[in-house]
Write a structure and sequence with these properties.
18% helix; 10-stranded antiparallel β-sheet; 10 helices
Length: 611
């Protein structure tokens, strides 16, 4: 057995565009494959990730599993065999027979002194136009010593190093301690109503693999999430996660701004979203900006972000109407798109397709709205980010189906076709022959419903959905704008007349398939205002809707359509709200004057790890 070597810098020969020119080697072992003569595997744990080098008859092939694709690891022991189950597990003649359990399980095989390290990764596979994530399990078997405790100590060394690297902490061979849980607030009625199922099958297993505990609360009535975060000690959680549509996060964020300690709370406790609704604009934007595959009802990438714990700042927009103040992270809309968003609620059961169907209906019955639109134009756009082209993901996958994870009884079985047993000939007095195994398997479907150390709080009262939240005072940063009905600054631009719509977004996407503002970043201090004036033909409007799917509309400014960067705006509709709709982050607000301004870097959100 090769002793682990620390502090070694080597050149990285992996042809991965994200790999660094040099990497730091923390642990290294050499393995031999029993089933193939003259084959050697060298496994290195480096600052880049896990490097696997296969050497056969002078030929070398290398694969690196990047650190950012690894979510966690776990040490296990082999499971006790029942009478008549076959040959002794120590022989490992058939790796398909291997089953493992946790160290404290009453069903472990005390005759097998091996320690098994399972490393869980979701490898990002790229092609010319698509991306996908494939689940891979790497298993290292440690059996160099004649006592399980010694073998386990060696396995734990690898596990601790991996956890320290993931957490970005110094290597101490002691797993970094973080006992804080995630707070999960889940709306079971978001979108088509599959949030609970999606969380259990696609998110909980990844949190389990990353050893991330959580408290799961199912919302019981409107504004439940808002009231929850306003009244609880949020500092006891490592982050607050909205599971549902953008509306759940809207509640959470505004509940945070209703706290007297809003500034400290938002600085110390990041927010996150798992998209299970119909629109899912913010989640789609995050995946777009961080090159993460986004597939509807597939939460792998966003769940990995929860496990890795990396955060980024995000702008928020302070919105003021006649009777309320709120904070927004997505958009403010008046007219066409807002009408579609609200009126298509009756088709919620079909998911995101409801928007396309209702858009056709609104084109046929096209409406006009009178009013005045005023805005503070950002004149110098030369320093704004260049548009980011969306990736085509229609045929890609990102860990489709339920994940395979351990429960209290058993773990995964080896895949017979992909399994190899490796060993080296190094031995000595009091030592067993080295028998380590490494193999990679794709996930198989299985049920998983809880994570150890986590709590599940479900609905307890059937009649509680009608409860109204207690009135609270909105805090947050002080406004720079004059009062809603006061005169605006002289440098503002004013447009008066009839409009089909005015929609302002501060995220790249306002829906899964609506690339509204291609230049938008999470934190850039810019809002993008789209104005469509009355007089546009139905065919032009349809062409616009088709172009917004891929952002082509952004360069098609004409006498009826324009997309402009602004730092603040005011919309004053004429007449009552009987024929029009105003929305903030997809939520209906009172029809009347509304104004907003952007505040950069107020909120931190969990994002995929780019390292």
């Amino acid at each position: 057995m090769a002793d682990p070597r620390l502090g070694k810098d080597v050149s990285n020969g992996v042809g991965d565009e994200h790999a660094e020119s040099k990497e730091h080697v923390y642990l290294e072992e050499t393995f031999y494959i029993l089933s193939k003569k003259n084959s050697v595997f060298r496994v290195q744990l480096t600052s880049n990730g896990l490097t696997l080098t296969k050497e056969t008859d002078g030929n070398s092939k290398e694969q690196t599993i990047l650190l950012r694709d690894i979510v966690g690891s776990k040490c296990m022991r082999s499971k006790r065999r029942r009478p008549g189950a076959g040959s002794c597990v120590c022989s490992f003649v058939s790796q398909q027979q291997l089953k493992v359990v946790e160290e404290n399980s009453g069903d472990l095989d005390e005759n097998d002194i091996s320690a098994y390290l399972y490393i869980y990764a979701y490898i990002l596979k790229r092609s010319r136009r698509t991306m996908k994530r494939e689940r891979t399990t790497i298993t290292l078997r440690f059996r160099s010593f004649d006592k399980y405790e010694d073998n386990n100590k060696e396995a734990q060394k690898w596990r601790s190093t991996i956890k320290c690297l993931i957490a970005g902490q110094p290597i101490t061979y002691v797993p970094p301690a973080n006992d804080k849980k995630l707070l999960i607030l889940l709306n079971p009625k978001s979108g088509p109503g599959k949030a609970r199922e999606l969380f259990q099958t696609k998110v909980a297993p990844i949190l389990q693999e990353g050893e991330i505990p959580y408290d799961l609360h199912v919302t019981k009535y409107a504004q439940y999430a808002r009231e929850f975060v306003r009244t609880r000690n949020v500092y006891g959680w490592r982050g607050i996660v909205a599971v549902g549509g953008d509306g759940v996060l809207f509640e959470i964020m505004n509940g945070m701004f209703e706290r007297l300690d809003w500034q400290q709370a938002l600085a110390e406790v990041p927010l996150a979203i798992l998209p299970c609704g119909s629109g899912n604009g913010l989640a789609r934007t995050i995946c777009h900006l961080y090159n993460e595959p986004y597939i509807p009802q597939n939460l792998t990438g966003m769940a990995m972000a929860l496990s890795r714990g990396k955060s980024a700042p995000m702008d928020v927009v302070r919105v003021e109407t006649k009777t309320q103040i709120m904070f927004s992270f997505l958009s403010v809309g008046w007219g066409f798109l807002s009408d579609i968003d609200i009126e298509s609620e009756r088709l919620r059961a079909i998911g995101g397709q409801r928007f396309a169907l209702w858009a056709l209906a609104r084109i046929v019955g096209l409406r006009r709205y009178k009013g005045t639109v005023s805005y503070a134009l950002i004149k110098d756009i030369s320093n704004l980010p260049k548009p980011k082209q969306p990736l085509v993901l229609s045929h890609s996958i990102s860990q489709d189906g339920a994940l395979d994870s351990p429960d209290a009884e058993a773990f995964i079985d080896c895949d017979e076709q992909d399994s190899n047993v490796w060993t080296n000939s190094a031995g000595g007095p009091g030592r067993h022959q080295r028998v380590d195994s490494w193999y990679s398997v794709n996930s198989r479907r299985s049920a998983f419903y809880s994570t150890r150390g986590s709590e599940y709080h479900s609905v307890t009262s059937a009649g509680s959905e009608m409860r109204s939240p207690v009135h609270a005072c909105m805090h947050g940063p002080a406004p720079h704008l004059p009062a809603l009905m006061s005169q605006l600054p002289a440098h503002w631009t004013h447009e008066q007349g009839e409009f089909v719509m005015v929609h302002v977004s501060y995220q790249a996407y306002i829906g899964e398939d609506l690339l509204f503002a291609p230049r938008s970043q999470l934190s850039d201090g810019v809002m993008w205002m789209l104005i469509i004036k009355a007089g546009i033909s139905r065919s032009q409007l349809l062409s616009f809707l088709l172009g917004i799917n891929n952002g082509n509309h952004a360069e098609s400014n004409n006498e009826y359509i324009k997309l402009i960067p602004v730092s603040a705006f005011r919309i004053v509709p004429e007449g009552s709200g009987s024929g029009g709709t105003l929305t903030v982050d997809g939520e209906l607000v009172e029809y009347g004057p509304i104004q907003a301004e952007v505040f950069p870097n107020i909120v931190n959100v969990l994002v995929p790890d780019l390292k």
